[in-house]
Structure prediction request, 788 residues.
Amino acid sequence: MKERCFCGNSEFSRDVHHYWNMTAEGHYVKGEGSMPIGVCTKCGAVRQVDLPFSTLKEYTEYYLHYFPAGKGAVGKGSSHDLVLAKDRCDNYGIYHGCEFDVLDIGSGSGAFVDECRHRGAKAFGCEIAEYHDSVADEFIYRKPFEEVRFPTDHFDFVTCHDVLEHVLDPVAFLKEAARVLKSTGQLIIDFPAFFLPEGDHHWKKEHIWYLQPDDVERLCALAGLNVTYIEHRYHTKYFFIAIKPEVERPQILMPPGMGDCYWSVVKLQSFLEKAKLGLPEVSVVCPRAKSHNGHQRAFPFLQMFPFLKASWKAIVGNDKASKVIWREAYIQQGRTIFENILGFDYFISYNGHLRVGKELAEIDRFACDWHPPMWVSLEQENFRTECQQRYGRYAVFYFVFQGTYKYWTDEFPISEVIKSVREICAKTGLRPVFTGGPWDAEDRQLQSVLRAVPEAVNIIGRTTVQQLFGLLRGAELVVGYPSGLTIMSGVLGCKTLSIWNTYYNQDFFWRAVPPDVRGKTYFVDVTTGLKAEYLARRAHSILSGNPIPVESSPSRTRLVAPTIPPTASPKSASDSPSVTVACVYKTGGDFTAEYVHKLVSAIRRHSSFELDVVCLTDDAALTGNFRTVALEKDLPGWWSKLELFRPGLTEKKRILYFDLDTLILKNIDHLLQFEAPFAALLPWNSANRARKQLASGAMLWDHAMFSQLFHNGYRPEQLGQYAGDQEFLSEKINAGRYTWTPLQTVAKIHSYKRECRRRVPRDAEIICFHGKPRPHELQIPWVVENWR
Prediction:
């Protein structure tokens, strides 16, 4: 991968420079030889080139075992760090009794975090290296800063002590630091004075950038920060203070509940992009005030999404005009984006459409990100660990009997709820844990349930939102009525059984959660005819990984069965068919690495098996949840497909291949299990069909049988006589007198250009995008929803 300067230029004047090593005792020793450096031909910035890492994953692995920080190094020790931390706190104005929010990036031993907390600040660190003398480890995030996704406008101070010179992309790094800073908050940077004689020992191989003060000023400007102070404070270091200016953000309203907010958040990033809006400030609106300020619980939830700012402002709109809008938003299939409401730029709500059974992806032109990036706090992680240690194996239950839930009680009485909890726990061996909001704790009927199940843990109204998410993540099973809690449990991929009522449209049962969890980890039932013994059997089957279908009594089949997708659960490797799923990515063409990731994501979403997925590629930096195998031949374009037939590519019996621009819409288990010597697409072109050619956009074959055939029959110098790989493959297959199977007889495969321009066929399982347009060029909702 070619190195770039932070100014965007990739041209460098190459040179070499001496370097220093640090001993285990913390002494500097001049290294032997020199290291390669580059001077940017555009801005003059200096960086190391030919690094041993180019991706964030490789970078993280390198610094995880970074010797000067490792357990084998003693260096100056935590006592030295604490002395320095006290001096820094004094200089920064972090005084005793303060309540500042502080983030120290590259926190090292944690001494600065420890001193800040000692003075009263709510301080946290971020560090990927292992230090032998950590002092504040319980407050340290152990992952790269860019991957934590802290809340927006959250910290009064962000500090970077000897960090910026280590960062792969300093512009992206500082932009993220600016995002998490509060308005007028301070970013404090110190870095080595590389170009002064007293700072010469900082020329070390672990540094990427060899910065000068004007470099840092330019970097801060690119990140939208105003440098207000520069000092050569220590004899080997520079010290910077940059301020985040006030930011005017789009003002957006959302409904008050976690589930309601989530559906709006799923569409928000696409809306912001299409409307060309910056990061917004989000408030919630409720038609009436709720007990215990229940709508306020939405804000710590919204705070978890890094592409918005939670305003912590709740609006009660109960005037006549507002009530008309709420009815349209919540009850009808009206607008989803309302402009200029109650002094806000936009109000976004999808409730009205969802409650009548609409699929979120089909409602408007904005794409869905069902799994948006989220902040997982240390509080959440620690509470998950605490719950697992305290309760052992446990199930979370959410029942409440107020408001519209009376429809649930009419068909599923409290006596059955009590029996269900008892029988579920008896069958699964799980301990029952009841949760909910502070207002739920006042439900008298719920209290009667708790009294009837004395072994249950009652933490209703006693958790923060972050703790609630930690509780869900640590549970082996979640059972309860539909709410933000059970919806988000489904989103997180927790094994969830949500009990609905026909008060709502039956399609809403499923469409409240991401498509990839429906029928895999998220299941629904209805209160009509529901009995405790059956619910316990179903919960146990979900937990065991072999979910039974909804009970087949006439009333229950009519209500639920037609809308439930196949309940195939992920199977173990031993159950998986002997097939490798393959694709080929040759750089320099129409496709990017994004196509590989999205195709693999679709393959895994739409299969119940643990699969061996491989990508043949010449991109050495490509990584993901798949194997990569290097292309051996530098063949042009599509001809690289022929390397799929190399001997030894897989130990599996068969190979199933897809072109990168293939869209998979539905479960492909039947295709993965299909056995035939060779199968391929019938060509979309009638002339090619008449010539008995095959199309190679998707193929399936016996690996051992055909690897030998192509190993012997493949001659690179002869490829020019063929119009393309499809003509070549057709000749080889037909010459060998092999009977090949059209894949269109095995799966519902369609051509976008020939069959899907107006609408996608109802039975479609796979769509082939041969030629133009490519999937990324289309903004059609069903394409956007499935190309992810």
Observations:
- The longest helix spans residues 258-274.
- DSSP finds 26 helices and 34 strands in the chain.
